[in-house]
Amino acid sequence: MTERKRILITGAAGFLGSHLCDRFIKEDYHVIGMDNLITGDLRNIEHLFKLENFEFYNHDVSKFVYVPGELHYILHFASPASPIDYLKIPIQTLKVGSLGTHNLLGLARNKKARMLIASTSEVYGDPNINPQPEEYWGNVNPVGPRGVYDEAKRFQEAITMAYHTFHGLETRIVRIFNTYGPRMRLNDGRVLPAFIGQALRGEPLTMFGDGSQTRSFCYVDDLIEGIYRLLHSDYAQPVNIGNPDEITIKQFGEEIIKLTGTNQELISLPLPTDDPKQRRPDITKAKAILGWEPKVSRSEGLKITLEYFKSLPEHEINHKDFTYYNK
Ligand code: UDP
C-alpha cells in the first residue's frame, strides 16, 4: 500500500472547507482539518471523526501554526466570507487573511508543501468590466465596510506570490465567485440563504436596492472539482472558478419564490455601501488550463440546496438573527 498524501485544510468546519475534506478523504488522502469554529460548525465534519485518515485541530491560524509529521499540501480556506460576518468580526477577518496566511506559508515552507489559497472575486471590488478576467486589477475601496475582507484577500495573494517568487514555494491561487450548496449557514446574511430562509418562514424576500445588481452562482460540487484540478496543476497565477450564468438579484428572488412555491413578495431595502453592481467570472483560463467548466445548472443546484435547508431543525429555520455564532 502506498503512503497516503497528507493535506492540511484550514476552515475545515466551514461550508467550503468541509466539502474539501470530503473530497480529499474520498481521494484517500490523510486529511488534517483545522478551524477555530467562529463561523464554522462541527456538524459539517462530524461524519469524518470516526475515520482513521481524518484528524481535527481546534486552532486559530492567526496564531503560530504547527502540525507534526509530513505535509504535502495546505489548503487555506479559513475566513469569514459573507458581508454580514466580516462586518461583525472585521479584525479577525483581516488577521486570518494576513497573519494566518503568513503563518501557513511559513509552515508550507518548513514542510515543503504545496499551498493553495482561497481568494475571491472580491479582489475585483465593484468591477468596471464584465465579465472579470484574471488580468483585471479591480476597483476596491480599502476603507469601506468590505475593505477588511477585500484587502486581506489582496494582501493574501501578494504574500503568496512573494513566497512563490522569492522562496520558490509551490503555490496556487483560486479566485472563488459566489458559491452555494448544502452546509451554507442559513443565517450568514448572504442572498441565497437569506431568500430561502425568508421564503420558508413565510416572510417577504429582502431585495437590496432595485435588484438590478448581478451575481453568478456556482454549485459547490463544481467549485470543489475546479479547486482539486487547480491544486494538481502546475499553474501558479490566479484562476477564476465560478459559474458564468449571470442573473439579477431581482430575477434571482423571483426564482426562489417560484422554487419554494411560497408566493412571497420581494421588498426593497437600501443597498449596502460598495455593493458590487455586476459580477461574472471569465473562465477562459480555467477551461484552457484545467479543462474545467461548471456542470450543475442553477435549477438543479437550487433544488438540492433547498432540500438541505428544509432538513434543518425548525428552530434553526426560524432563527433569523444574523448574530448567531458558535461562540
Ligand atoms: N442581497 C439582497 N438581499 C439580502 C442579501 C443580499 O438583495 O438579503 C444582495 C446584495 O446586496 C448583493 C447580492 O445580493 O447585491 C449578493 O449578496 P451576498 O451578501 O450574497 O454576497 P456578495 O456577492 O455581495 O459578496
UniProtKB/TrEMBL annotation:
What Pfam families has UniProt attached to this entry? GDP_Man_Dehyd (PF16363)
Compartments (UniProt record): Golgi apparatus, Golgi stack membrane
Tell me which GO cellular component terms the UniProt record holds: cytoplasm
What pathway is it annotated to?
Nucleotide-sugar biosynthesis; UDP-alpha-D-xylose biosynthesis; UDP-alpha-D-xylose from UDP-alpha-D-glucuronate: step 1/1
List, alphabetically, the Gene3D superfamilies matched: NAD(P)-binding Rossmann-like Domain (3.40.50.720)
Lineage top rank: taxon: Bacteria
Q: Which CDD domains match?
A: UGD_SDR_e (cd05230)
Question: How is this protein situated with respect to the membrane?
Answer: Single-pass type II membrane protein
Recorded GO MF terms = NAD+ binding; UDP-glucuronate decarboxylase activity
Task: Supply the alphabetized keyword list.
Answer: Decarboxylase, Glycoprotein, Golgi apparatus, Lyase, Membrane, NAD, Signal-anchor, Transmembrane, Transmembrane helix
A single Gene Ontology biological process assigned to it is: UDP-D-xylose biosynthetic process
Identify the EC number(s). 4.1.1.35
Entry cofactors? NAD(+)
Domain (NAD(P)-binding): residue spans on this chain = 8-304
Q: Which family does it belong to?
A: Belongs to the NAD(P)-dependent epimerase/dehydratase family. UDP-glucuronic acid decarboxylase subfamily.
State the name under which the record lists this protein: UDP-glucuronate decarboxylase
Q: What organism is listed for this UniProt entry?
A: Mucilaginibacter gossypii
User: Upper lineage ranks?
Assistant: Bacteria, Pseudomonadati, Bacteroidota, Sphingobacteriia, Sphingobacteriales
